[in-house]
Amino acid sequence: MIPSPPxxxxxxxxxxxxxxxxxxxxxxxxxxxxxxxxxxxxxxxALKLATQYHPDIVLLDVQMPFLDGFSVCRxxxxxxxxxxxxxxxxxxxxxxxxxxxxxxxxxxxxxxxxVNWPTLAHRVRYMLRASYAIQTLAKTVHELDGxxxxxAEAQRMTHLGNWDFNVDTQAMTWSDELYRxxxxxxxxxEASLLSLFVRVDRADRERVKTWFENAVEHGQISDITYDIxxxxxxxxxxxxxxxxxSRANGVVRELHxxxxxxxxxxxxxxxxxxLAYVDTVTGLPNRxxxxxxxxQALALAGRYERRLAVLCLDLDNFKRINDSLGHTIGDLLLKxxxxxxxxxxxxxxxxxxxxxDDHDQSLARLGGDEFIVLLTEIRRSxxxxxxxxxxxxxxxxxVQVAGHEISVTASIGVSIYPxxxxxxxxxxxxxxxxxxxxxxxxxxHYQFFAPDMNARAVWRLRLEEYLRxxxxxQEFALHYQPIVDLNTETVRGVEALLRWKxxxxxxxxxxxxxxxxxxxxxxxxxxxxxxxSACMQAKAWREAGLTVGRVSVNISVxxxxxxxxxxxxxxxxxxxxxxxxxxxxxITESLxxxxxxxxxxxxxGLKALGVGLAIDDxxxxxxxxxxxxALPIDRVKISSDFVSRIDSCSKDAAIVRAIIALAVILxxxxxxxxxxxxxxxxxxxxxxxxxxxxxxxxxxxxxxxVTNRLKLPAQPVNETPKILxx
Length: 726
What we know:
By secondary structure, the protein is of the alpha/beta class. It has an eight-stranded mixed barrel with strand order 18-19-21-22-23-24-25-26, surrounded by four helices. Strands 2-1-3-4-5 form a five-stranded parallel β-sheet, with helices on both faces. The termini are far apart.
């Protein structure tokens, strides 16, 4: 464990950067962490402040006018008061040459831009502690020259060894701990530069050799970190700090260095980075890692005039899976999807020309059910379409998760550099906009970004804002459409339909605002208001002695899957005093297709209350007779899409006949929706349809007008079809 420095609170950090915004970000980050921060906008001022304040650590930008970071670093190392001060160089350059220049100038370590702000304070604290440990123990080497045993124990505790090198004789001596660090038994071999170089990892060997040459020939001493590989193959990371013990006529004669095994510290830093950059559910990179990767890719694409594509992927209806099967199953599904996406991208190597080991950086999970893909060096936009198609194809196969077979689809939005944006924020935003456009257009589909999508996205945000205010301002209202018994020619019930009159927009069609309400979750609050208001009105009609039959209320998928729906319906019935048999709840056919235990239990619970249950828009899904027979359903409502074409499309007419026949077989009620003409009415009566609704009988009307119509005597359907309409 690295010892902590003595209490000097707060530690002083000198930040040197010509970019004022960068200095302010560093000040804010480190100031919050308890550091005292001093700022210098150029190298000259940095040298003055270093003399004045004696900082504990220096954060030094590389690229500055007049006096760059490398020069400032060399000046600081040449001064007695700062020769051992940790210097952390901040650079946008991540090439090997720049890194070597930083170390050659005397830098302790370096970080690349963009800076990972959450881990910056940890990095600074670690460097201060490590610097203190090395300085303290290096000093101990001299002070305890006559007490080797005590020194050896101190070195063992801190994994700190040391060596001495005589330039003239080429003789080298190692401490026992250095032998152990290098993987040798103490005194088992003769200490030499060759024995040291043998242990240095091949990737670092040339850099270490250059360090020694600079130290001996030019007297240039700097900290250096490198990897070693022991005889058993164990890899370790060491940090070396040296000093010149003697010179003769300006020529270096003796060198001394402290070498510390910092493997655990390096691993700790890697773990910090992993936590900052890896999604814990899928093991994929997270948003921060992806944005850093995209920023690097954009720099290369701009330099070499290349194209790249960003694909934003969102799973369709994932919330239903979480709500019905639980978050544990949802997380397992996300992990499986992540694996499939990796496989799909590997199959796309010939399109994007990515190397196989690049996929971990080119695919990330942004959060929730949203993933993001980066395709570099695409030749044309169509290449991104090929990859998007392969992804959709890969996801089309059902997923087996904890005994559940789950079908998953996704919507994908694509943005292209430089056409759709030249920075990280624009490309991500536009890919996200395109993804939502794909979801609205047709799920399980991909969509390229188009400029007019931004206008539509702004409109939807505006609509969402109006929706949130609409409930509080009581802008919503219910209209009621009659459900007519075709045999007795009387009203058997009404369906409550939501209407919205927004002060600025006027009448907003349900087809425009309901999808937004569902996407934002506002549909739950709106749905509760609809259910409560419809029950109150139905009770008022009954108390007035008006025969209205049942009132039908649509229940959204989000409402249905919300926990406690049965108790919620029971509470509303109790509050309004409406009899349960007077209420009918309409649910979608797609919801029933899930056929999960949660769905069935909710249906059974609602049925136990005594309310009626109907399947809305029946025929558009894929319900089977087995599904219908197993569920406590009272009636099916034939979709108006089929009814509207029964006199012009023989297939739709056949479907309507089949649904009526199926309902008869299963002893279910059947309601035809969208009846608009006398021909529709005659067809339905001829084939045994019992109930119907549509403009032929009356448009949806406000409750006051419905009340007035209900007070009128009943009229024959064939002669005066507008039962609830003047």
